[in-house]
Amino acid sequence: MQDPLAITRVNRKALEKMLDHYSLEELNKVPEGFTNNLIWNIAHVVVTQQLLVYKLSGLPMMVSDEMVNAYKKGTKTEGAVDQNEVDQVRELLFSTLDQTEKDIKAGVFKGFQEYPTSTGFVLKSIDDAMSFNNFHEGIHLGYILALRKGI
Q: What is the mean pLDDT of residues 116-135?
């Protein structure tokens, strides 16, 4: 079986290509018929991984409360982000995964708060969270691919 983090890295590389290919204006554009933009979706997957893997494990997250409040489930694009925020999101795409890999190897994930997802799957362990995160990131990559058609 593939390591779930290896799968996440492949998805994150695809997201990074979006950051490389689109201008700041294009990253911020909310196409007609959509409620979010490219950068919101990319930041959202970073925040969601942190919530699923770290918060549900009772561990400190590597993203700020401000970032969580802007990009968590149920939020939408509220305004344009600047280049500094795009750069921060770009850095977090991989630094969060690098730290997750180190933390897995160090055995820091000991507890886990059971969490029923909106899709009906109940997360009961860190392994469930890692697998579900890949499912979630795949959904948002698909959403991003649809958004590109409106830019």
A: 96
* Residue 122, CA distances (Å) to 16, 116, 126 in order: 30, 4, 12
Maximum separation of any 2 CA atoms in the chain, in Å = 46
As a dihedral over the C-alpha atoms of residue 35, residue 41, residue 44, residue 49, rounded to 10 degrees, the angle is 140
Strands (E), 75-149: 115-116, 122-123
* DSSP 8-state assignment for residue 51: I
Tens of pLDDT, residues 7-59: 999 999 999 999 999 999 999 999 999 999 999 999 999 999 999 999 999 99
Helices (H) and strands (E) in the chain, counts: 6, 2
Q: Work out the angle at residue 147's Cα, subtended by the Cα atoms of residues 146 and 151, and round it to the nearest 5 degrees.
A: 125
Q: How many residues does the chain have?
A: 151
State both tokens at 141.
């990559």
> 83-106 vs 38-49: helix axis angle to the nearest 10?
20
63 near 119, Cβ under 8 Å? no
